[in-house]
Design a protein that fits this description.
Its EC number is 3.2.2.27. The chain is of the alpha/beta class. Helix content is about 40%, strand content about 10%. The protein has one domain: Uracil-DNA Glycosylase, subunit E (3-Layer(aba) Sandwich). The radius of gyration is 16 Å and the shape is globular. Bound molecules: iron/sulfur cluster (SF4). Iron/sulfur cluster (SF4) binds near residues 15 and 101.
């Protein structure tokens, strides 16, 4: 699906039950030629209220992290696995069926931006974007070559806000970005994976991501 079509469709989307808990769809934002693409889990309260990703304390932490490697928020494409806020306070994690329903939008964003580096923030984005089954603690900070880009799994901003030791590790993981952004794209045919419900399970086209 073309990016513009995906954005238009998402803003009125009712493909999963999260349409009932949202106030606004948070599609994502950033330049379509960004080299860096950051994926969180789902919009939270502040994002739902504003319609923009990574707001409030999380947004401030992200901007600080980007600043430590000489990047500004405006240079990066920012989005989440699902575009609507899950219910609950704090919100629950998105369900696999919800991630699957929303993946068409994430795919169209990745295809349009074609970033060199993807940072997956948190357990669920890391698992889904890398297809790895290991715990996040085991794989965090690795630059995993997938479909001609590097995917870096790391902690969520929310976790880093409350656990100082993990905040230090998040800073360390971000410190790898300048080198990776300057390096050549990795050569690999391994393809990023997003799970579907068993009834819909089908391989993604090679190179789709
Ligand atoms: S989370 Fe995604 S699939 Fe579900 S209603 Fe929102 S935009 Fe549609």
């Amino acid at each position: 699906m073309e990016f513009a079509e995906a954005q238009k469709e998402a803003l009125e989307c009712t493909r999963c039950g999260l349409c009932q808990s949202r106030s606004r769809v948070v599609f994502g934002e950033g330049p379509l030629n960004a080299r860096l693409f950051i994926v969180g889990e789902a919009p939270g309260y502040n994002e739902d209220a504003s319609g923009r990703p990574f707001q409030g304390a999380s947004g401030m932490l992200l901007e600080k992290l980007l600043g430590t490697v000489g990047l500004s928020r405006e240079e990066v494409y920012l989005t989440t696995l699902v575009k609507c806020r899950p219910p609950g306070m704090p919100p629950r994690s998105p369900r696999p069926s919800e991630v699957s329903s929303c993946r068409r939008y994430l795919i169209s964003q990745l295809v349009a931006v074609d970033p060199k580096v993807v940072v997956a923030l948190g357990e669920l984005p890391s698992r889904i974007l890398t297809g790895r089954k290991e715990s996040l603690r085991r794989i965090r900070g690795r630059a995993i070559p997938l479909d001609r880009r590097y995917v870096i799994p790391t902690f969520s901003l929310q976790r880093a806000l409350y656990v100082p030791a993990d905040r230090s590790l998040l800073v360390s993981d971000f410190s790898r970005l300048p080198e990776l952004l300057e390096s050549e794209r990795p050569t690999t045919y391994e393809t990023l994976n997003v799970p579907s419900p068993a009834s819909e399970r089908e391989p993604l086209q090679p190179g789709l991501w």
